[in-house]
Design a protein that fits this description.
Blueprint lengths: L7 H20 L2 H5 L2 E8 L5 E3 L1 H12 L7 E11 L4 E11 L8 E9 L5 E10 L2 H10 L7
Parallel strand pairs: 1-6
Antiparallel strand pairs: 1-2, 3-4, 4-5, 5-6
């Protein structure tokens, strides 16, 4: 298959990978969640914890699913998908963890996804930031040029 250009199938595969991450989270399945990451992946949480590799990410998330994040779901809205070459994509999304119905999506995630030699997309890096709506509003009010399109 010639991957000189990304296709609708590539975009669908990237979306499907992120949907699978939400599904694994919803099942509380740390192993399945970790398998979606590369062996050398980096997961930077919104509190600043850094996990390395799919195995560690899965193990740590299983501990979270068994305690603080028990019975939670991951809600996500993809804002942008950009491809850099045939086998790399950057995804920006809003998301949050919830029980019951999701509220406002209070975090922003940046994913770096890569296609492996096996043709499967995996998460190579994710960085999560808690959105500071009040600080954004103040910044935009007093310096309107800081407001994104």
């Amino acid at each position: 298959m010639n991957h000189q250009r990304t296709t609708e199938a590539d975009t669908a595969a990237v979306r499907h990978l992120l949907e699978r991450s939400c599904e694994a989270w919803g099942r509380g399945d740390g192993a399945a969640y970790g398998e979606l990451f590369t062996d050398d992946a980096t997961d930077v949480t919104f509190v600043g914890t850094v996990y390395q590799g799919g195995e560690e990410i899965g193990r740590a998330h299983q501990a979270l699913f068994d305690s603080f994040l028990k019975d939670t779901r991951l809600a996500m809205e993809i804002l942008d998908i950009r491809f850099y070459g045939a086998d790399t994509a950057v995804v920006v999304s809003r998301g949050d963890v919830h029980k019951g119905r999701p509220g406002k999506l209070g975090k922003v995630q940046t994913y770096t996804l890569v296609r492996g030699e096996d043709g499967r997309w995996r998460i190579a890096a994710i960085q999560k930031t808690k959105r500071q709506r009040l600080m954004e509003a103040v910044s935009f009010k007093f310096q309107p040029a800081t407001k994104p399109r």
